[in-house]
Amino acid sequence: MNYDPKSLIRFACTSLRAFGCSQEEADIVANHLVEANLTGHDSHGVGMLPMYGAQVKDGNLVPNQTPDFMPANGAISVVDAKRGFGHRMAILALDHAMKTVADQKVAILGLRNSGHISRVGTYSEYCAARGYVSIHFVNVVGHDPIVAPFGAREGGFSTNPISMAMPMDGEASPLLDMATSTVAFGKVRVATNKGEKVPEGWLVDGEGLGTTDPVPMTNEKIGALTAFGTYKGSGLGIFAELMAGALAGTTTVEEAEIFPNGVLNNMLSIIIDPSGFDDPAAVQNRIAGFTEFIGGRSPAKGVDKVLLPGDLENTRRIDRSRDGIAVDHETIRQISEMVEAFGTPKDELLKALIAR
Ligand code: NAD
């Protein structure tokens, strides 16, 4: 079923209000999740709501949290989110850190101990809307590491995403937003549920050899996901862990607490005012020139057009805004069940949804 995006925001808001979020927090989280769906990243869209509900029930995700803002140390700011909803915590933290940009032309943020911050590209977009270049490194703790360092037979870190973007007339363009694993674990679970094999290169088995069988990893945590791009992607995943967990945060997977439904993020963000280098208009002209150059390269046989990072998401946003967002019945059922467990009748929730 395809749903009207605005109705999906109302549906997500009602769910989050049931979990105890204020209207303001529910709006921020709901808009973030539906934007992830609009850009095609369904793994980080409204399907996250049952996990958030379970985390709130367990006391590991705190609605309406007030983060601790440490005073800036030069251009460096640290914010402890104290397990608040990461979507709102990260925005509050970026606002706090960006105060140093006026004087220093740069801000470096360490966001630690945050609830899931979901689609990291959102924060690149937030910085770009203010005219800033930004780079974000994220690590993931709270559960066993699921991505094998190159050459290992078991996980050593998680999907540790990286995002960066250039500001272009208030938009993030280009915008790179990627996990450092080849694929998300959700895709492996889906293949198991459907009784399908996964493509070569996604997984290693318990001996560290490539496998297309998703069942041992899904059901018994035997083997691990691969990092993208063999040892180079593995190196980036390791550095995301070090930047976000060891430097900006206080925990890497090596020492972090593991708990049921456990997902916490730490993030190191570097926010740069282009005017520290040159006239921002001149920088923007160079960005536009180079991106047009890349987009205009002759496509390989079978490829329509060479894409920049973020192009695919922009096309999907247009398509899904027009055609609606497909959410499967099982996901809607899981969300409704969780919302009912918080005492809000499912009819009240479902009436928010409008099909396209
Ligand atoms: P992906 O593989 O779909 O895309 C990665 C990047 O490649 C994007 O910038 C995309 O624009 C670009 N791209 C894709 N196809 C392209 C093509 N044909 N040509 C040129 N560029 C192309 O994304 P992913 O790695 O699966 O990540 C999905 C989302 O998951 C991201 O939003 C990420 O932030 C999020 N994530 C979050 C966490 C967390 O703990 N919060 C962890 C992992 C991932």
Overview of the structural elements:
The protein is α+β, with helices and mostly antiparallel strands. The chain folds into two domains: 1-64 and 324-356, Malate/L-lactate/L-sulpholactate dehydrogenase, four-helix barrel (Hypothetical Oxidoreductase Yiak, Chain: A, domain 1, Orthogonal Bundle), CATH 1.10.1530; 66-181 and 227-309, Malate/L-lactate/L-sulpholactate dehydrogenase, NADPH binding domain (Ribosomal Protein S8, Chain: A, domain 1). Helix content is 41%, strand content 18%. It has helices at residues 5-18, 23-38, 49-58, 86-97, 101-104, 121-129, 185-194, 215-220, 230-248, 280-295, 311-323, 329-341, 346-350, and strands at residues 2-3, 68-69, 76-80, 106-115, 133-141, 147-148, 162-168, 171-178, 203-204, 210-211, 224-226, 264-272, 325-326. Strand 7 (162-168) and strand 8 (171-178) form a beta hairpin. Helix 1 (5-18) packs across helix 2 (23-38). The longest helix is centred in the C-terminal third of the chain and has 19 residues, at 230-248. The termini are close together. The mean pLDDT is 96. The structure holds nicotinamide-adenine-dinucleotide. Nicotinamide-adenine-dinucleotide binds at residues 41, 43-44, 116-121, 138, 140, 159, 161, 163, 176-179, 184, 265, 307, 309-310, 312-313.
Write a brief caption for the model.
The chain is of the alpha+beta class.
* Overall geometric form: globular
Structure summary, number of beta strands: 13
How many H/I helical runs?
13
Strand content: 15-25%
CATH topology assignment of the largest domain? Ribosomal Protein S8, Chain: A, domain 1
Distance between the termini: 8 Å
- Secondary-structure content class: alpha+beta
* Sequence stretches where pLDDT stays below 50 over 5 or more residues: none
What is the H/E string? EHHHEEHHEHEEEEHEEHEHEHHEHH
What Rg do the Cα atoms give? 20 Å
